[in-house]
Write a structure and sequence with these properties.
about 60% helix; 5 strands; about 550 residues; single chain; Growth Hormone, Chain: A
């Protein structure tokens, strides 16, 4: 087996068509890129026991979003170690290990969901699966740059394009399998016909002579149900969300596809060269294209490495938090104002389209950087991105005042442009590194740089979940202040003095409060992400400064070939 996976076994024969090489890369990246469709799992993971609505024992959105964060952190850490190892053993061995980790992570995660053990889900999908992400991510990058020395940007774009497009197939597959294994819980009838009791912040009803926890689905929550059903009272722990079974099936599929792709990798022979090869860059960017190489360890001693680290980290932070809650975000911003358009199917399609533009941006922007220059390309990312992020709070405010589809179209278009640049930033950074540090050790240096992705994987979700939670808490307090205390107690079976307990057990939500709010009360849900968008614009401003200060590496860091 060691010989079968060795670097020597995958040297391409003479006259091998280099255009076959990207296929294996795209296949592996399409599998691991399904991580960008994580938000498809969120609605089901926060309703494992309640199934149609969150129960008292169910996980919160903040808890499950951090699983995505754990995967991204482990991606960066694994890539940092795998980059140098990749140069020694070749992409096939790294790709096979990636397949085992990514597929195996899903299988362990499935067990965690089935047994309702959150730590197992973190271990499986977050740690083991995250290591598979990092190994699979770096395996093709330096290989393709060597096969396409005349188009470094295009080569890195092809290497990473599939990762951005993973959700194109991943999102509908996840939706399909979740619905396939979904089973609705026992239905007791409409709430007015059921004798309900509130205890410890939870709702209970008598079922077969025993008091059992129940969840109540009102008209406003119907759009969030996995499979449509009647509003009313449902018994907790009597149905199945379908997500555990979906995890298991997806793990098997991804492992098989990635193993096939890993065994398809090929490296150029040592004496291979592309006749007529020449760089394709604008004159004003050639000053940043090095003709010398810098060793992996020496690269860490240059300011350029840390400038690019900051550029990547802040660019990723601005996008990755939104990616983790994409389905939830569009449903909350527009679901209350345009419910006839933005339903669960629309939100799921939105996730797919994010993947389409993420993937397209990786190839288009990376290829364009061969002509614009890498530094100028990042100028475009940050200037345009700042303007678009700042426009989203304005859009959320306007759609609340004037629920017009025009604002939805603008939001859709703006976020799609943002995600082309988010993906473009990932695809362009390997070529940027090759320009600055040379091509000899670009795979290893790229792996070290991906620790910026790990950091962003913490900062992005932390920002969006904490700022959103602050907005939710403020909105609930403002709504409660407008509601008659007697009407509140009638609705929830407990006085306002128990508000914090009721909120912590998911008995009180913004949508349930809006059902008893005075006529004319503005639903605050659309503005839950405003503070997050402003913060993201600030981060892009800092990244813009770091990119603007980029200069060529001092020759003292170059490898001396004499």
């Amino acid at each position: 087996m060691s010989g079968l996976l060795s670097k020597e076994r995958i040297l391409a024969p003479k006259n091998y068509n280099r255009w076959w090489v990207p296929l294996a890369s795209i296949a592996i990246h399409m599998c691991i890129g399904s991580v960008y469709a994580w938000s498809i799992f969120n609605p089901s993971l926060i309703k494992i026991q309640g199934v149609v609505a969150s129960s008292g024992e169910d996980w919160t959105l903040g808890q499950v979003v951090w699983i995505f964060t754990a995967a991204i952190v482990c991606l960066g850490l694994a890539a940092a170690f795998a980059g140098k190892w990749l140069e020694e053993v070749g992409p096939r061995k790294v790709g096979v290990l990636a397949a085992c980790c990514w597929g195996g992570g899903y299988l362990i995660g499935s067990l965690g969901i089935y047994t309702h053990q959150l730590w197992l889900l973190y271990l499986g999908y977050g740690v083991v699966g995250g290591c598979g992400l990092g190994l699979g991510y770096v395996s093709p990058v330096s290989t393709l740059i060597r096969w396409f020395p005349d188009r470094r940007g295009m080569a890195s774009g092809m290497a990473i394009m599939g990762f951005g497009g993973g959700a194109i197939l991943g999102a509908p597959m996840k939706e399909y399998f979740i619905k396939m294994f979904y089973r609705a819980p026992d239905y007791l009838g409409i709430s007015s016909e059921v004798n309900l009791l509130t205890e410890g912040g939870r709702r209970f009803a008598e079922v077969s002579g025993k008091m059992q926890e129940v969840v109540i689905v009102g008209g406003r929550e119907l759009r969030d149900m996995t499979v449509p059903g009647p509003e009313g009272v449902y018994v907790v722990n009597t149905g199945a969300s379908g997500v555990a079974e979906a995890f298991f099936v997806l793990g098997v599929i991804y492992m098989i596809v990635m193993l096939i792709a890993a065994f398809s990798y090929r490296l150029p022979a040592p004496d291979w060269n592309l006749s007529g090869c020449k760089e394709t860059s604008t004159e004003n960017s050639k000053e940043l294209i090095s003709r010398s190489d810098v060793d992996i360890n020496q690269a860490l001693k240059t300011p350029q490495f840390y400038q690019l680290w900051i550029v990547l980290c802040l660019n990723v932070t601005a996008g990755i938090g939104v990616l983790g809650v994409a389905k939830t975000m569009i449903a909350e911003i527009f679901g209350t104002t345009l419910p006839h358009i933005v339903d669960t199917a629309f939100a799921a399609t939105y996730v797919v389209m994010i993947s389409v533009f993420n993937m397209a941006g990786r190839f288009i922007w990376a290829s364009a950087s061969d002509y614009l220059g890498r530094k100028n390309t990042y100028w475009c990312f940050f200037v345009i991105g700042i303007l678009l992020y700042l426009s989203i709070p304005i859009t959320a405010q306007q759609v609340t005042v004037n629920p017009s589809v025009v604002w939805l179209i603008y939001f859709y278009a703006s976020t799609m442009i943002i995600f082309t640049m988010y993906g473009g930033g990932f695809a362009t950074i390997p070529a940027y590194l090759a320009d600055i540090f040379g091509t000899k050790y670009v795979g290893g240096i790229h792996g070290r740089l991906l620790t910026a992705w790990s950091t962003a994987g913490v900062l992005g979700p932390l920002a969006i979940t904490s700022l959103r939670q602050n907005s939710v808490s403020t909105a609930i307090k403002d709504l409660v202040a407008r509601i008659d205390p007697m009407e509140f107690e009638t609705k929830f079976g407990a006085p306002i003095s128990q508000l914090e307990l009721l909120v912590s057990q998911n008995s009180v939500t913004i949508s349930k409060l809006m059902e008893i709010a005075p006529i004319g009360t503005v639903d605050p849900t659309s503005g839950l992400y405003n503070s997050t968008m402003i913060l993201m614009a600030v981060l892009l401003g800092l990244a813009l400064i770091s990119n603007a200060l980029m200069r060529p590496v001092d020759p003292k860091h170059h490898i001396n070939d004499n």
